[in-house]
Amino acid sequence: QIFLGALSFVYFAKALSGSYLKSTITQIERRFDIPSSLVGVIDGSFEIGNLLIIILVSYFGAKLHRPRIIGAGCLIMSAGTFLIAMPQFFMGRYKYERFPSIMNSTGSLSPCLQEKSQIPHSALEKSQGKINAGCEKEAGSSMWIYVLLGNLLRGIGETPIQPLGITYIDDYAIEENAALYIGCVQTLAIIGPIFGFLLGSLCAKLYVDIGFVDLDSVTITHKDVQWVGAWWLGYLIAGMISVLAGIPFWFLPKHLPKPEGRKDSSSSSEQSKFITEDNKERQKSYQQHVKIAELAKGKCLEFVSSLLNFLPSLKNLFENPVYFLYLCASIIQFNSLIGMVTYKPKYIEQQYGQTSSKSNFVIGLINIPAVAFGIFSGGLIMKKFRINVLGAAKLSLGSSFFGYLLLLSLFAMGCENSDVAGLTVSYHGTKQITHYEQALFSECNSGCVCSKNDWDPICGENGITYISACLAGCQASNGSGKSTVFYNCSCVGILESSSRSSSAVVGPCQKGNECPKMFLYFLVISVITSYTLSVGGTPGYVLLLRCIKPHLKSFALGIYTLAVRVLAGVPAPVYFGVAIDTTCLKWGSKRCGGRGACRLYDSRALRYVYLGLTLVLGTVSIFFSIAVLWVLRKRSTLQEETTSDSRRGTGLTKKRKDNFVNSDHLIQTTYWPEKETRL
Fold this sequence. Notes:
The protein is mainly α. It has helices at residues 2-23, 25-31, 36-60, 66-85, 100-103, 121-136, 144-158, 161-172, 175-205, 231-246, 270-287, 292-318, 321-342, 344-352, 356-384, 389-408, 515-535, 537-546, 553-569, 571-581, 603-663, 675-678, and strands at 458-460, 465-466, 476-478, 485-487, 504-506, 584-589, 595-601.
């Protein structure tokens, strides 16, 4: 019971930290000024760490002290989680782009600088000094490597938890209760992501340098594109939870006493008897203190024997068309789902103008429970209707088909681009067709000395967002911080409708009035889609188990897990990130030159790329699923024909026997109930 409680808590801890990483994707991107493709590499490093030692842990771990290995894995996992948060304490305070008068209001400064000499000499020196200091610390921009290494370490630490924990329960639990215990552990694993995304929502509302700076001096809000939440705080919390989760395992024994129901009982399965005898033999061998050299020799022979059996077993698996086709379908579908889940918070933020906090809250409180309920419903349907392998394939295919069909409707539930002068609309308010950096400059701001690299958006009273107060042609400002108001903005007053007013306020303008309604529709369809796709999870798993020979089940599951992680878990976040980067309209600039994180995306292009890539992969996986169903039906038809022929043969034999019996008076011809059935 203690082991079961501890393992459940560990499953909760690892699921929480993994989902929290997904919730901080956009925060990490902005904090380290890196593109989405690089964030995808960081996300995939967990799977790489897991794959590095999975074979060693699975093979040698079962022969060592399993609880302590799990405890050590928890410590490594917590160390990796702490390492992810460390850059916050070494790379200095977060600096965002803001006009000098907003940063401190000691004097009124004109945003539209006619000449460089208009800047006060002291302010210019101070600004230049900050830039030089920033360039000296530019090595801090490579701190994302520590996040990658920390996530890699998390993957290594998580490796022993599942294989060693589940086998320990199966070895020492009462056989009838083992499935229930494993179900409890998996349930806690589903609850973990809910808390992970909710923690991400909470931390995203807190400013990144909370506790280090005066929050009153912060001139941006959590709705700003440049806002970075306290992403590091959640990793410290997750790391502490991992440490606490690992403590009980150091005090648990290597072996537990076998339950009475599994001690040489005739009711035990052959597998249980084999395991029991194997454990006894192992204990005897340890008691005899076998020499290390002989043990090493035995292990080498065992390893060579396993290696020789590996290739024939692998060939046997891949020659099974159902297994091979289902493996291909799963790999492609997981590419689709992993890419979609990884960048879902980012999509909600950029498409619907929502904050990071709200995006994570929605996913944690609505989407994850829908997935859990879908998995449970799939298992319930399988049990209630006693669905066979062919039925499981149909249910899995139907789930995928209707899930991706629902996803298709999301193309119509997007928001249009925000009106940003020089990027999505011209300075005269007409829609832009092509996007050129030169379009940022116009006659209305030609008299200003402005930089095209700045991103300090303001909202004009005409409802158009301007990249900076300088590019808006603003001549004066009043107020400080978040309440700064700009006046006499020549570009704002260029439209006839706003000729009487030429002021602007800090921050970008809100998206269109239809966007909140579209976001609500998106949530409803997203929840239904998550549920529908998840219903096919359990039937698909049952199909995988039943389409292969019993002695190859463990090996087949291992190859399946390995293939999905290598071919989906690692590459999907990377190429999804690369595709999303192609939709960027305005890239940020680092202090010493070079491209930073994206500040503004093309909403329509982002929608087509994100949903399109997900749907294309999903459609390909459906074709493979149809092929699986076709092969199973073909096998089923052949089996029915064989059974029919067998029955016909039995019928003819029976008639001949009846004639023989009737003609032979030596054999008793009295009526015998169930005689035909027995024959």
